[in-house]
C-alpha cells in the first residue's frame, strides 16, 4: 500500500459536458485503500445504522464489499473482518494507508521481567514494581492474511476494478464499461475524457471526508466540484 511519499493511480472516465466522473478504472492498491476505510470504527456504525440509513457513500461501499464474490477475495481472508470489525488493543493503524504510518515503529516499554507493556518509560509494573524502562518496537498488526498468491490486502491484484462515483466497486469488463456508458446516456464518445490521476495523502483525506457526505465522491475529490 502506498505511503505518504508515494501515490496510487487510477483512470477516470469523465463526462466533460457535465463535468462529472462516470466511473474509474482502478487496480488492487486503490481498491484495498477503499476497503481499508471499512476497518475503521465507521464500519461498525454502518452495520448498526444500516447501509440504507447512511449519509454519503460509505453505505454503498459496505454493500459492494459484502456482495463481492469470494472469487475476488483473498483465500484466507474472512470478509467479516471488515463487515463486522472489532477494535482490539493493538489493532493496526486504520486511518488511511496513505497517511504517515505512526503505528509502525511506535515505541512501547516493558518492565525487565516483561510482565506489562506501557506507552511510557515511567510506568511502574504492578507485579515486579520496576519501571517499564526497556524499549520494544511496536510493529503493528500484519496486513490482512496473505493468501497463497503471496499478496496482502483484501482483493486480488490480477483484476481491474470499476469504481463508481459513489464508490460502488465491481470487477471491470468491456461489457460493464459499455453498460455504464449507456446507463449515463453518453451518446458522444468525444465528450468522454480519460484522465489518469494519483491519489496521495491529501486526496485520500478528501476522499474519506467526501464519502461521509456525498454520493459523487470521485467528482468532488478529483474535479473539485463543490456541489457534487
Give your account of this protein's structure.
The chain has 228 residues and is of the alpha+beta class. Helix content is 25%, strand content 18%.
Identify the notable features of this structure and list them briefly.
elongated, 25% helix, alpha+beta, three-stranded antiparallel beta sheet, single chain, 228 residues, five-stranded antiparallel beta sheet
State the gist of this model.
This protein is 25% helix and 18% strand. By secondary structure, the chain is of the alpha+beta class.
Query: What form results from the Cα inertia axes?
Result: elongated
- Total beta strand runs: 8
Q: What is the gyration radius calculated from CA atoms? A: 21 Å
Major sheet: 5 strands, antiparallel
Quaternary structure annotation: single chain
SSE ordering: EEHHHHEEEEEHEHH
Quick check: average pLDDT? 78
Low-confidence stretches: 1-5, 87-95, 97-104, 143-147
What is the number of helices? 7
As a percent range, the share of helical residues equals: 25-40%
End-to-end gap: 28 Å
Residues in β-strands, percent: 15-25%
Q: Reading side by side through the largest sheet, how are the strands ordered?
A: 7-6-2-1-8
Structural class: alpha+beta
Reconstruct the topology from this structure.
Layout: E1 8-15, E2 20-26, H1 28-36, H2 42-49, H3 58-67, H4 80-83, E3 106-110, E4 117-118, E5 134-138, E6 161-164, E7 169-171, H5 174-183, E8 192-199, H6 201-211, H7 217-222
Antiparallel strand pairs: 1-2, 1-8, 2-6, 3-4, 3-5, 6-7
